[in-house]
Each structure stands twice: as structure tokens, then as C-alpha cells.
Design goal:
Number of helices: 8
Number of domains: 1
Radius of gyration: 18 Å
Number of strands: 0
Length: 204
């Protein structure tokens, strides 16, 4: 496998087709946890771990279990509906693992996340990454799938950390009253999404 192909896959999902800023997935934690850089970075690390492990495990489930069984019974798509069940179960298990780890070793971070930590289970960016891995032709081998999942997680971490840094500065800025709160937050998110379109063509 060419290193160039792997780098292209990584840059494509991390920058060009960023799950948050281009795919508009995972907007809830992106806006809800991006108030402070340390919290945003911690959430980004947690999501990166969950996306990477979930992407690899779901790829193995589809290609090592569901697809061979479907081929054996003469209908490759017979168990297609089980993919979604498997994806959700794997994601929920990985989130539970992260939650237990943070609760034991990083109690302040666990407390700061609050409800947003278990809500990683319903983070559509993670499910979206798993579905993209299943559908895209360039991720039909395990290494490519792992690189795609890891790049997607790092792209999420990059986006939410940058957003948190900007919001920390905006807090001390003279924002017009009509834009204070959600207004300036959504405006910043839109400008950030436009900025990321400048990476178009890098991963090609």
C-alpha cells in the first residue's frame, strides 16, 4: 500500500472533508463543549479514540463476519441491516470504556464533561465515520479504514479545539448585543467552516 494513498486519505478526512465542518456531523458536542480549550481538547481526544477503535472493529465485523455469512447463504446483502446494530453497540461499548477510564484517572475532566461524555454514544460524527468506512471504495482494507477513522477523529479534535480557542477570545471581545451567545458562536462556526474549504484539493 502506497504511503501517498494513506496520507491522501488522512488529509482528506481530517481537513478537506472534515466530519464537523464539511459533513456537519457532531455539531452538538462541537458547540456544547467548545467553551474552553482544555475541555475541547479532552473531548477531541475521547472522540478520536472512540472513532478509531470503532472504525477498526466495525470494519472487522462487516468484512470478517457479516459479509462471509451473507456470501455463504448466497445473499451478500442479507445481513446488511445488522451493520447498524453492530455499529451502535461497538460505539456504545467504546464510550463506556472511555467514561470508566476518565472517571477513575481524570475525575475533574469527567465532571467537567457532564452529560456530554455519555452523549458521545449518540455523536453522529462517529456513526457517520463508520458508515463512510463501510461505503467508500478506498477504505475496503483494514489499514485504510484505520487511517480514515484516525484522521476523522483528529479532524474533529482540530475543529473543536480551534473553535474553543476562538470562543475564549470572543468572550473578552466587544460583541454586538444582537450577536451575543448563540449568534456569535454560529457565526464563528460558519466562518471556520469556510476557512477549511481552503484545504480543498490537498488530499487528491
Amino acid at each position: 500500500m502506497s504511503i501517498g494513498v494513506l496520507v491522501g486519505i488522512f488529509l482528506s478526512v481530517a481537513l478537506v472533508n472534515n466530519l464537523v465542518l464539511a459533513g456537519f456531523l457532531g455539531i452538538c458536542p462541537f458547540l456544547g463543549v467548545s467553551r474552553k480549550v482544555d475541555m475541547a481538547f479532552g473531548m477531541g481526544c475521547a472522540v478520536t479514540f472512540v472513532i478509531t477503535i470503532s472504525g477498526v472493529v466495525t470494519w472487522l465485523i462487516v468484512h470478517a463476519i457479516l459479509t462471509p455469512i451473507g456470501n455463504a447463504i448466497g445473499n451478500p446483502g442479507a445481513l446488511y441491516f445488522l451493520k447498524y446494530v453492530a455499529f451502535i453497540m461497538v460505539i456504545a461499548s467504546m464510550v463506556q470504556l472511555v467514561e470508566m477510564y476518565l472517571k477513575k484517572f481524570f475525575p475533574p475532566l469527567y465532571t467537567a464533561f457532564g452529560v456530554f461524555l455519555p452523549l458521545i454514544t449518540t455523536n453522529c460524527a462517529i456513526l457517520g465515520a463508520c458508515l463512510y468506512i463501510d461505503m467508500k471504495p478506498e477504505t475496503q482494507n483494514l489499514l485504510n479504514a484505520a487511517v480514515y477513522a484516525f484522521g476523522g477523529g483528529l479532524g474533529f479534535m482540530l475543529a473543536i479545539t480551534i473553535m474553543a480557542g476562538i470562543r475564549e477570545h470572543v468572550r473578552f471581545s466587544d460583541v454586538p448585543k444582537c450577536l451575543q451567545g448563540a449568534g456569535i458562536t454560529l457565526l464563528v462556526a460558519g466562518i471556520l467552516a469556510l476557512a477549511f474549504t481552503g484545504f480543498t484539493g490537498i488530499g487528491k
